[in-house]
Amino acid sequence: MVRHAHKRAMLWELDQSIQGIAAVDANSPALASLSGVYHNLIREWADI
User: Fold this and answer.
1) Of 3, 18, 34, 38, which residue is least crowded by CB atoms under 10 Å?
2) How far is it, in rounded angstroms, from Cα 2 to Cα 20?
3) Among candidates 11, 13, 14, which has minimal Cα distance to 46?
4) In this predicted structure, what is the pLDDT of residue 24?
């Protein structure tokens, strides 16, 4: 979906951070915010 390896790497790191926060506090406001950023980046960078 995302052509550039460095962008995929950033998305992977962001996803790992999101999962780490979710494991500690699934109701964290930061979790919702970071998830939104993650999905917006995918929409921005996806080659569709």
Assistant:
1) 3
2) 23
3) 11
4) 96
pLDDT score of 13: 98
List pLDDT tens digits, range 1-48.
999 999 999 999 999 999 999 999 999 999 999 999 999 999 999 987
The whole domain housing 36 covers: 5-45
How far apart are alpha carbons 32 and 46 in whole angstroms?
Answer: 21
Contact 4, 27 (CB under 8 A): no
CATH (domain of 16): 4.10.860
Helix (H) or strand (E) holding 46: none
Separation of alpha carbons 1 and 45, rounded Å: 8
pTM: 0.88
